[in-house]
What we know:
Order of helices and strands of chain B: EHHHEEEE
Radius of gyration of chain A: 16 Å
Oligomer: heterodimer
CATH topology of the domain at 13-18 and 52-129 in chain A: Thiol Ester Dehydrase, Chain A
Number of helices of chain B: 3
Largest interface: A-B, 32 and 33 residues
Distance between the termini of chain A: 16 Å
Number of strands of chain A: 5
Shape of chain A: elongated
CATH superfamily of the domain at 15-19 and 55-143 in chain B: Hotdog Thioesterase
Mean pLDDT of chain A: 94
Largest sheet of chain B: 5 strands, antiparallel
Strand content of chain A: 25-35%
CATH class of the domain at 15-19 and 55-143 in chain B: Alpha Beta
Number of strands of chain B: 5
Helix content of chain A: 25-40%
Radius of gyration of chain B: 17 Å
CATH superfamily of the domain at 13-18 and 52-129 in chain A: Hotdog Thioesterase
Structural class of chain B: alpha+beta
Strand content of chain B: 25-35%
Shape of chain B: elongated
CATH architecture of the domain at 13-18 and 52-129 in chain A: Roll
Helix content of chain B: 10-25%
Distance between the termini of chain B: 7 Å
CATH topology of the domain at 15-19 and 55-143 in chain B: Thiol Ester Dehydrase, Chain A
Number of helices of chain A: 4
CATH class of the domain at 13-18 and 52-129 in chain A: Alpha Beta
Low-confidence stretches of chain A: none
Amino acid sequence: MAGLKQGEPIEELRVTPDKYLPHRYAGASGDFNPIHIDPEFARAVGLPGSILHGLYVMALVSKAGIDSAGGDPRSLRRLKVQFRSMSFPEQEIVVSGEVVEADGARAELDLVAAQGDSRVIRNARAELRTGGRD
Amino acid sequence: MALKTDATGKTWPAYEYEVGREKIREYAQVTGMDDSVYLDRRAAREAGFRDVVAPPMFCVVYSSGALAPALFDPEVEINFAAMVHGGQEFEWGEPVCSGDLITTTATCREIYEKLGKGFYVFESVSTNQDGEEVVRGVWTNIVRGV
């Protein structure tokens, strides 16, 4: 078990989604909103280009949380995020976090997903079960 | 302009989704969930799952079909050109595995205005074939300039 301790950082997750990631995520998720897969459409509605799906970035945040608890998907009980900024393919995303509370059976994390200086998701809260299975 | 809030409390018809192993694999690979329990049936069974297990965030795949009719309902009247996904919350229950039949129901929990923006808050509840809750979601969409 990971042995999460209050006040300690979790291991960072670093991912650089390639140019076509939003297309594959659209296929996997069923969300084909053109702002994610058509740069011309994205620019026509005032965006700098195709943007990543927010729920894709939330999936990266979920992975950082699950990994911190040892990798078992059953450890993630709850995840709450706010989408604060756009994010883009071909730029590194860094998910970092800190243990806010931990008592051996459960832990709560505060997480951030950033791209450069831009915090795409912040004040994310993850509740983990870190003790035995019921 | 006053924000239209008539759809508050409205529930849309349940949406059924049958979970398949290759769809889990596709989703897991795209999102970098590389643990063998998402990809390999034997590894999943050794870890105590019925079959390959879906990553928790796979919930967006089986519940989006319940949310779409809610978002596009003319009674809700969302201005999509000015809409952003503002926040998301999930609380998970039983794990979802390949072969599960998931039923999701969406409800409009709240519509309100704050600082010139419209907030549309939907709740989704998903259960498996045994009636066990697998996830509960709160989806917040924000519309500028209402």
